Amino acid sequence: MPHTGRVNEHSRQAERARLAESDSPTAPWRLWGPYLAGRQWGTVREDYSAGGDAWTSFPFDHARSRAYRWGEDGIAGICDVHGFLNLGVALWNGRDPFLKERYFGLTNDEGNHGEDVKEHWWVTDGTPTHSWMQVVYRYPQCEFPYAELRERARVAGRNEREPELSDTGALDGNRFFDVAVSYAKASPTDLCVEITATNHGPDPAPLHLLPQLWFRNTWSWGRDARKPSLVARTNDGWRRVTAEHGALGRYTLHVEGTPTLLVTDNETNEVELFGTERNPGEYTKDGVDRYVVGRDARACRVVGPDDTSEPGTKVAAWYSFDPVEPGESVTVRLRLVEGDGHLDAFGPSFQDTVQQRRWEADEFHATGLDPRRAAVVRRALAGLMWTKQHYRFRTREWLDGDPAQPAAPKSRTTPHARNAHWRHFDVADVISMPDEWEYPWFAAWDLAFQAVPFARVDPAFAKEQLLLLCREWLMHPNGQLPAYEWEFGDVNPPVHAWAALQVYRSEEVPDRKFLAKIFHKLLLNFSWWVNRKDADGSYLFEGGFLGMDNIGPVNRSEPMLGQWRLEQSDATSWMAAYSLHLMQIALELARHDDAYEDVATKFVEHFLSIADASTQFGSGGRGIWDETDGFCYDAVTRRLPDGSTESKPVRVRSMVGLIPVLACATLEPWVFQELPDFTRRLEHLLSKRPELKPFVSRRGDRAMFSLLDERKLRLVLTRMLDEGEFLSPHGIRSLSAAHREGLEVQVADQEHRMGYEPGESRTPMFGGNSNWRGPVWFPTNALLVEALRTVEEFHDGSFHVELPTRSTRHVTAGQAADELVRRLVSLFLPDHDGRRPADGKRIESTDSPLWRDHVTFSEYFDGDTGEGLGATHQTGWTALVASLMTDRRQTSAPGT
């Protein structure tokens, strides 16, 4: 919890000083962090099956006994930046069938709405250099209901709520332990660890705490036989473990008190899992579990007094508390130190370090906001910082298989195999993940959005992340950015340039080197889009699903039937916006290097060509604008035998039709004053092609480019700000509520039915775990807010809209942006009943402070009620709430 005492001057500057020293990913203060994954099983990386079903190839039930190939996972754990040495918490309540070493959740096939974690934990605090981190995990005292949760989800339909842990009664009467894990760095390589478990139940309850230290298995695959070692030693008053690694060096883990030290190896139990005759070694990954829970005395080595044990690669310190009284807390302390250790590991320096880092975190996160908002911002940023995970994946080795393992199935070597065209992909970096359990891999547009709130607290990391995705070991040689692990070749919206501008503008001292580096890379990506996603050069783009999963009546990643092709309103608009963002970057760079000036005109011309095609011409002669409805739609087109082209709109009012609003940008007076060549070229172009003038507005010495002219923008905003359509109490819906009763739409000569679904997805499209047919999503809402602010900046208060539509209440574009922000942030603030809308009907909405003190950041939110849905730790892009709450551009409250 935040400390309320006095913060000295050293505390005020300490974290900022550490950040100043840590402008690279390998800086000392960044060596250790929350880089251990929340889930490694069920990922594409660990899938070596012929069929490519990652969930069944490496299920949860294998995780405790099977060595991972590419990473590790654990509860409230940390590791070094290379992912070699890991420290995490295991628990046992005396009733579970196996140790609690990782979070449990349902796979796509098991969950009635796709994959879904069934645990409760919260990242409660943190600083960007990870000098201070704190996580709370809630552990039931009864036997964890694994089978019941699976069965409840199996019989539940897609129209029913997801079964949760609270539905089983496992949390009744507060019969759980809250396990708070705190990390405080005394130095970059000296980590003080405090684990405090509190019994919130009415009865005494046993608890076994087993902090574990282990090495990632790098030696079993036939590529590097070198094996690190963990040597555990005990004496009358102390316990310690020495870790030796060829690259990481030596570390010593001090363990307070006299717990039992158990040593095993991070090796697969092939006998248990696959029925082989014998295991490669005597001890296996599940050795600690089989010793403590299974009472198998031969499962691991027990280190006795003055015993120099044989080295292992996984060690647990077994503390047994039987019982813990109601309201009582028990604490375990550890200290991980580089070298031979600390002479007084648990002396005064330990508690002084913990207390000092708490104080420094309080000062670092001071915002001047009211306490309720400040708490939301701090939790959002803490969760965002915990999304950093070590991500290792060498695709060519994954496709070909390892020398010491069975040969790769033929299905993995075909040209159509998953990620077969990404053999260059070779990553071993810390990357920000969307959600540490449900999405423990990066996604291109998620990462771009995550960089924006990151820039508020850690601009160096934000810039490094944006550049990383453009580096040659990730970006395809043809310029495509990898979309996400399930299929790198899929397509996410091109928002990288927008994010780069946001990060660049957030710093007081402009970093033009960063802007130039990412601009050069994005030139390659822009060319890929133009060459690959505009099939006939019409300036109308296809794109694919573009991250918005089931938003359309058909799967937009699959080819159309017959001769039909899909021209997408959102793909076309994203590219128009991309052109403007690259133009803005080029203009900024041209202020100091005139070589960029004519590059900026290239993107102006590209934007204007897209704008022209989107409204007048295009392959079907109609573009994406529909004059009848005053809205933008996808279109399906085909070539007829006589050579003409037929085009039909896909009349579904969704976020697809709002993306055109985002394609706008202003030219400030300095552009016309400092860049004469750019100015002359723009004026020449508009004089020669007057039909393009509607897309360029002038007010004095300023100008604005917009895909929608003022009349069309007003028509689209009329629908967007209509509470019967897109405007919900908590933001802009992804599908119009006017489709609440459903609609039938013809696409490529086939009838399809869909409708407004405010909550969880009712279709299995893209796994069914995300729904873009009604809920509110933070990333697109944040972009709409930004677009309204751009309109406000250009019109300077003279552009008014009715908000809500038909209310006779008129506000400026800036006030409309403020109102959207108010609705979005209201999700996380108590309403008149004292409840957060985002908590909905979940257990978090209970009156108990044990629940209501914890804010949950969900993947998306019910379009009617605001209840948080989907992934439950999406302090990836949902951390944008921190940016919205601290945006200084907010004007007065909306009024007439």
TrEMBL record:
It holds the Pfam family MGH1-like_GH. Residues 1-21 have a biased composition (Basic and acidic residues). Residues 1-22 are annotated as: Disordered. It comes from the Bacteria. InterPro entries: 6-hairpin_glycosidase_sf (IPR008928), 6hp_glycosidase-like_sf (IPR012341), Glycoside_hydrolase_63 (IPR004888), MGH1-like_GH (IPR054491). Gene3D superfamilies: 1.50.10.10. Residues 439-664, 704-875 form the Mannosylglycerate hydrolase MGH1-like glycoside hydrolase domain. This is Glucosidase. It comes from Saccharothrix yanglingensis.
